[in-house]
Amino acid sequence: MALIEVENLHKTFRVARHHRGALGAIRSLVDRQYFDVHAVDGISFSIERGEMLGCLGPNGAGKSTTIKMLTGILVPSSGRIEVLGFEPYRRRKDVVRHIGVVFGQRTQLWWDLPLIESLDLLRYVYRVPAGRYEENLHAFRRLLDLDPFLNSPVRQLSLGQRMRGDLAAALLHDPSVLYLDEPTIGLDVVAKHRMRDFLRTLNRERGVTVLLTTHDMADVEQLCARLLIIDHGKLIYDGSLEAIRDRFGTERTLVVDLDEQNGAVNGPLDVPHAREIRADGPRRWLSFNRADTTAAELIAHVAARYRLRDLTIEEPEIEAIIRRIYEDSSGISSQTL
Amino acid sequence: MDRTALRLYFELAKRQFQRQLAFRTANLAGLVTNAFFGYIRATVFIVAFRSQGTIAGYSAADAVTYAWVTQALIMVVHLWGWYEVERTIRTGDVVSDLSKPFSYLGFWLAKDAGRAAYFVLFRGLPVLALGQVMFGLRWPSSPLVWVAFAASLTLAVVVSFAWRFLLNLTAFWTTDARGINQLAAAVVLFLSGFVMPIRLFPDWLRGAVLALPFAGMTQIPCDVFLERLDGADLAGALGLQAFWAVAFLLAAQVVVVLATRRVVTQGG
Ligand SMILES: Nc1ncnc2c1ncn2[C@@H]1O[C@H](COP(=O)(O)OP(=O)(O)OP(=O)(O)O)[C@@H](O)[C@H]1O
Ligand SMILES: [Mg+2]
What we know:
The complex is a heterodimer of chains A (337) and B (268). Chain A is α/β, with parallel strands linked by helices and 337 residues long. Chain A has eleven helices and 13 strands. Helices cover 35% and strands 28% of the residues of chain A. Chain A has a six-stranded mixed sheet, sandwiched between helices. Chain A has a four-stranded antiparallel sheet with strand order 11-12-10-13, with helices on one face. In chain A, a hairpin with a 2-residue loop joins strand 11 (274-280) and strand 12. The two termini of chain A are 27 Å apart. Chain B has helices at 3-20, 24-50, 60-78, 84-91, 94-98, 104-134, 143-169, 177-191, 203-211, 219-225, 232-261. Chain B has 268 residues and is mainly α. Chain B is 73% helix and 0% strand. Chain B is globular.
C-alpha cells in the first residue's frame, strides 16, 4: 500500500458574506449570508515511500489546505485520506508522531528563547530516546550549519537561519514523511541552493518522503522527479517534469542574427511553419511548433533565403509552460489534460 | 499520565517561565503600576473603615491586606488581558501546536503554570513586600495557613486559566474573540471580588456570587490568606475551587475537540 493515499478529497469553507459599512455590521449579525469556497475540489493521488514530490499551483489553489488535511489539522469535507495507514484527522496524534511539517511562513520555534531550547523541547514532545536525539541533533547541526546561532533567541535570527532551525525542528524525531509548505519562500539564492542540497541528502540518505509546495520552479526542477499541479482545488497535472515539457512545451523559438552588410531585410522573415514573434534590428525570433517542422528543416529554410551570422534555439522555459497551464486551466478538468 | 508526559509538561512550564525572563523592563513597569494602585486602594479602604471599625467582618488592617493581596495576584491569576491562544488562532500559528502529539489543553495549561510561577516570584512577592513596607500587612499566622493559601492559589490559577482558555478558543468561531474577552474581563473584575470583597456585596447577591467560579479566582485565596476560613469552611472553599477547576477543564477539553473538528485556521 502506498504511504499516502488521497481519494476524491474535498474541502469547502463556508465564509460569511459581510454587509458593508457601519449599518452593514449590524445587518451581518441578524442576516447572515454564506458562500462556499471550494478550496480543494476532488483531488486524488498516492505517494510511495521515498518519493520527493513538488506541488505547484497559483495563489489560492488549495495547496496549503491539502497539506493541512494531510497533517490532520484540518478535517476534509469529504473524501478519503490515509497517511501511514491512518486517517490523519481521526488519529492526529498517531499520525503527527511520524511526520514533520514546516509551514514556510510560520515558525514552531519559541520566539524569545535560544534556538536550542526549542529543539530540546521536541525531544520530550516526541519522546525521542536520548541517544537518538543527540545523534540527530549532531547531524542536523552539521548539515544545516546551526552552530553559529544555536544559542541566539529565535527572534534575532535571519529568515534563512530561522528556516534552518525550523527544518531541524521538524526532523529531530525521525519522521518518515516531511511536508514543506513553501520552504524556500523569501530565501536568497545561496540559501535556496543549500536548502535544496539538504533536502536531497535527507531524501537520499534517510529515505524521508518529501512533499513540498512552492512557487519557485527551480525547487521542482532540481529536486522533484514528480510534479503535482493544483489549480482551483483540482489536480490538473500529476507526472514528471520532462513529460510536461513534451506535452505542453511544443513551441520553440529559433533566434537568428541576420547578416545585413548588403542591406537590411525589411519586414518579418517569411519561412514556412514559423512565425516571427519579435525583431530587434538584425536579430529575429521565429516561433515554431515541433509538430509542424524540425529545427533542422527550419534552419535550412531560413539559411536558403537569408544570409545568417549566428543562430540559437531557445527551449521553452518551464516557467512559461506552467504559466500557460495556469492561464488555460480555468475551464479544463483533469480528464482532458 | 506517565512520567514522560509529566516531563514534557514540566519542560513546557520551564520554558514559559524562562520566556518571561526576557521581559524585565515590562515586568518592572507592571510592578510599579500594581504597587501604585495598591497604595491608592489601601488608602481608600483606610478612609472608608475609619468611621466603621469593621465591615462584613473585615477590619481596616484586613482591608488593606486584601487590597495588596489582590494587587499581588493580578498577574499571577491573570484575570484579564490574556490573548495568547487567541493570537495563535487568529494568525494561524496554531497549526504547529496542533500538529504535535500532545494534548492541546495540557500544552497550554503547562505553559500557564510556568507563567504563573514566574509572576509569583517576580510580581506577587515584590508587590506584597512593597505593601508591607508602605502599610504593614496582616500575614498568615501559621505555616499551615501558607500551605492552604498555596493550594487555593494553585486552584485559582487553574480555574482562571480554564476560563481564559475557553474565552480564547472562541477565536476558532469568531474574529471578535478579543471583544468577548474584554467583556468577560469587566464582569470577572467584579464577580471575582477583585474590586471589592464579595462579602461586602448586598445580601441577596452575596451567596450566589460566592458560589460562582469567579470567587475562586480572587476572593477565596484572599480569604484564606486573611484566615477568614478554617475547618469545614476552608475545606468547602477549596472543594468549590477544585470543583470549578475540574468542570472548566472538562468544558475546555470538549471545546478543544469541537474546535479541532472544524479547525479553521487563518491564512496560507
Ligand atoms: N480558513 C479559511 N476560510 C475560508 N477560506 C479559506 C480558508 N483557508 C483557505 N481558504 C480559501 O481556500 C482557497 C485555497 O487556499 P490555500 O491556502 O490552500 O491556497 P494555496 O494554494 O496554499 O495558495 P498560496 O500559494 O497563495 O499559499 C483560497 O481561496 C482561500 O481563500
Ligand atoms: Mg499556501
